[in-house]
Task: inverse folding
């Protein structure tokens, strides 16, 4: 009552109520009892990537390791499958890595075309891009369900990301097996830049949401690099120790003067193992990373490690996976085996665990328009996680779907037409 009274007197801004409601909804996600995916999702392989269209938040893309791409309408009570299509040259993916998941073995080239990444065109739900493990990159027309342009690469493609603003350039960043990051012009299908600096496979690439010239990349060489594409090189490698010197044992040599001490060269790393996923907060103030060292790290706008402790976050992926951040940048969602962990982004506290899948969860994405979470798993299933409804929301929906019916019998007509008034 105190809050409502302060709103009535104008002491609280309307944005405060919006922030409080967003926080309530994002912290109360549960498996939806009303929405379920309707379509032939079984038998198409593990779901590996999801993406919600940024224009309306209505259409969800799903890509599987069986090389199938499906589109769903999430605005309906039943999440209906609009279409399903096969990626060109579709065949089961075969991917093997050297021990530890750091770099592929010499003969570990992917021979399959499972979907490795998906993205809607930023300002139009009539087109989307997909990459596959066989090196294919395709631009699709959703109306015809046909490939209209291809950008084939010579090596396995793990990740792609098109600049979300498309104001100054239309560059598509591609992370691949050959340790390089390529920037492709989607209009001409040509490669404009090749960014060299990583020493192993590039598993994840992300454009900064507010700076269209800044690109973040994560690799199996344990580093995250920030690139300025105008310079064509990495201007920063994120250091998990924020520049603090490592404590090495002092090594003395019998072949040098007694006062001389040999010290190994410090190697800058962002994680202690491969980086499999990156995710910017909606405003770009924070960058969240996840690695095979079972750690998540939060980097601030100065690209310093904030030292937030999320505890042990199991990550057994051997290539890219998908994590998500809520619209208000309060909650981070990360797959935890067959479950999804919900963490407070700034404190690292685990708030909740979402259970519903029967096998490894590979991907999750947040819908900012509906404040819903979607997840895909190796059990071939897609799940919808929706906020818990308040009593007022439930009553309003019941009234909206109720049928007032006739107010008089068929045998007796009224003297004057009656009016049914519905109070909302």
Result:
């Amino acid at each position: 009552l105190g809050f409502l009274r302060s709103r009535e007197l104008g002491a609280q801004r309307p944005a405060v109520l919006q922030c409080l409601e967003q926080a309530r909804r994002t912290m109360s996600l549960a498996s939806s009892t009303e929405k379920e995916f309707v379509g032939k999702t079984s038998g198409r392989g593990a779901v590996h990537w999801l993406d919600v269209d940024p224009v309306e938040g209505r259409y969800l893309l799903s890509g599987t390791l069986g090389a199938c791409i499906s589109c769903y309408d999430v605005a309906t009570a039943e999440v209906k499958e609009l279409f399903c299509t096969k990626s060109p040259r579709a065949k089961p993916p075969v991917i093997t890595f050297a021990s530890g998941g750091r770099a592929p073995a010499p003969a570990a080239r992917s021979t399959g075309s499972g979907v490795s990444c998906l993205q809607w065109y930023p300002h139009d739900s009539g087109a989307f891009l997909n990459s596959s493990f066989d090196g294919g990159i395709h631009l699709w027309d959703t109306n015809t369900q046909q490939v209209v342009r291809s950008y084939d690469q010579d090596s396995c493609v793990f990740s792609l990301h098109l600049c979300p603003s498309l104001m100054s350039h239309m560059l598509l960043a591609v992370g691949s097996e050959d340790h390089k990051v390529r920037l492709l012009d989607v209009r001409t299908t040509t490669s404009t830049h090749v960014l060299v600096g990583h020493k192993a496979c590039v598993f994840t690439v992300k454009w900064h949401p507010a700076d269209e010239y800044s690109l973040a990349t994560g690799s199996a060489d344990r580093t995250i690099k920030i690139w300025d594409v105008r310079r064509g090189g990495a201007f920063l490698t994120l250091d998990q120790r924020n520049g603090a010197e490592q404590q090495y044992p002092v090594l003395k040599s019998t072949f040098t003067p007694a006062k001389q001490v040999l010290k190994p060269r410090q190697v800058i790393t962002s994680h202690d193992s491969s980086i499999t996923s990156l995710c910017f907060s909606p405003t770009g103030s924070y960058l969240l990373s996840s690695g095979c060292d079972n750690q998540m790290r939060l980097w601030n706008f100065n690209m310093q490690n904030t030292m937030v402790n999320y505890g042990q976050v199991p990550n057994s992926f051997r290539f890219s996976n998908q994590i998500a951040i809520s619209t208000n940048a309060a909650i981070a969602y990360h797959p935890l085996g067959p479950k999804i962990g919900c963490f407070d982004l700034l404190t690292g506290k685990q708030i909740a665990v979402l259970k519903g899948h029967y096998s490894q969860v590979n991907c999750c994405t947040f819908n900012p328009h509906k404040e819903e979470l979607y997840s895909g798993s190796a059990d071939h299933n897609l799940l919808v996680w929706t906020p818990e409804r308040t009593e007022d929301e439930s009553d309003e929906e019941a009234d909206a779907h109720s049928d007032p019916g006739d107010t008089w019998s068929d045998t007796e007509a009224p003297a004057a037409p009656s009016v049914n008034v519905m109070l909302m």
